[in-house]
Design a protein that fits this description.
Length: 315
C-alpha cells in the first residue's frame, strides 16, 4: 500500500480540522489510550519495594508489551484496509490522530500575543502547555527560549519522526513510534522513581529518533534564510545538548534564527547547568518566536512536498 499517499491524507485532515475537541471529549485520543495503559502498568509493576534490577526488567517488559501490542493492533487494522483509493483514504483517517502539525503551530502561536504585550503571567501559562520545566521562574526571554526549543524538538518528535516511521512501516510503524514516544514522555526520566523502570523506554526512544532528529535539523537549515549558519550551528553544537537527539533540531533552529537556546533551566524544582547552543548569540524574543513559527511552516511545507513526491513515485 502507498504509505506516502496515506500520510498525505492524514496531513490534509490534520491541517483542515486538527483533532476536534468534541471528538476528544467523546473518545479521547489514541495517545491518551496508550498513556492510560502505561499508567496502569506502571502503578502495578513499578513498586518502590522492588529491587533496582527487578524494576529495570519489569520496565523492559512493559516497553515491549506496549509497543508490540500497539503495533499488532495497527497491523490488523492496516491488513483490513481495502485496496485502491478507498484503502488510502481510510488509512489516512487511521493515521490522522498521529499527525500534529496544526496543534503544534497553534500552541506556539498562542504564546506570542501575551509575550509581545508584556503579559508575562499569561505567556507563562501558555508555554506551560508545551514544556516540562517550571514556567513560574521564566522571564520573557526564558519563555521565548522555552517555546522555541519546544517547537524545534516537538517538530522532530511529534511530526517528522512519526511520518518517517509511517513511511518505513505504514500504520504499524507510526503507531509503534507513538507508543515508544509516549512511554518515554511518561516514564523515561532519570528520577528516583523512573531511573530503573523507564530505562528501556528512554533508550528505545533515543534509538528511533536518531534519524528523524537529524533530518529535522537539516530541513530547518535548508528552508531557512541562513542555511550555512544553521548547518554550522547544528554540526558544532548539537552534541552539547543533554539529549542525543533534541540538540540537532534545536541547534539548527538557533543558527537559523541567530539566537541561543538550551542553557540552564529548572526541572521539578532542580536547577540544571546545561550548556548553551549557539551560545554567542542573544536570547530569543517574541519577534524571534514569530520567525521560528514561519521557519516551522516552511519546513512542514517542504516535508509535505517530499512526501507528495514519494507518493507519486511509490511502486
Amino acid at each position: 500500500m502507498n504509505h506516502a499517499a496515506i500520510i498525505l491524507v492524514a496531513i490534509a485532515l490534520d491541517l483542515g480540522i486538527g483533532w476536534p475537541d468534541g471528538l476528544y471529549r467523546r473518545i479521547g485520543h489514541p495517545v491518551t489510550w496508550m498513556g492510560a495503559a502505561i499508567r496502569t502498568l506502571e502503578a502495578l509493576w513499578n513498586k518502590p519495594t522492588v529491587g533496582f534490577a527487578a524494576r529495570k526488567f519489569r520496565g523492559v517488559v512493559v516497553a515491549v508489551l506496549v509497543i508490540a501490542s500497539s503495533a499488532a493492533l495497527a497491523f490488523l487494522a492496516q491488513a483490513a484496509l481495502p485496496s485502491g483509493w478507498v484503502g488510502i483514504l481510510l488509512g489516512g483517517v487511521l493515521v490522522w490522530p498521529f499527525i500534529a502539525l496544526r496543534s503544534m503551530h497553534n500552541h506556539v502561536a498562542a504564546i506570542i500575543p501575551p509575550l509581545q504585550a508584556g503579559d508575562l503571567a499569561r505567556a507563562r501559562h501558555e508555554v506551560s502547555m508545551i514544556v516540562g520545566r517550571d514556567p513560574s521562574q521564566l522571564d520573557a526571554e526564558g519563555v521565548a527560549r522555552a517555546a522555541t526549543e519546544s517547537l524545534a524538538e516537538n517538530t522532530s518528535d511529534g511530526i517528522v519522526a512519526p511520518i518517517f516511521w509511517g513511511l518505513v512501516g505504514g500504520l504499524p510503524g507510526i503507531v509503534a513510534y507513538k507508543a515508544i514516544n509516549t512511554l518515554d514522555s511518561m516514564i523515561g526520566y532519570r528520577s528516583p522513581r523512573y531511573v530503573a523502570f523507564g530505562w528501556a523506554s528512554a533508550r528505545i526512544d533515543d534509538l528511533v529518533n536518531l534519524v528523524p532528529a537529524r533530518l529535522t535539523g537539516v530541513i530547518f537549515a535548508l528552508v531557512s534564510a541562513r542555511p550555512r549558519a544553521a548547518l554550522a550551528s547544528m554540526l558544532r553544537d548539537a552534541r552539547l545538548h543533554r539529549s542525543p537527539n533534541a540538540g540537532w533540531p534545536e541547534s539548527a533552529m538557533a543558527g537559523a534564527l541567530g539566537v541561543r537556546l538550551s542553557g540552564p533551566r529548572i526541572y521539578d524544582g532542580t536547577a540544571t547547568d546545561d550548556p548553551w547552543v549557539n551560545g554567542t548569540c542573544p536570547d530569543p524574543k517574541a519577534a524571534d518566536l514569530r520567525k521560528a513559527l514561519a521557519l516551522y511552516r516552511r519546513a512542514m511545507a517542504a516535508m509535505t512536498a517530499g512526501v507528495a513526491v514519494l507518493a507519486v513515485l511509490w511502486i
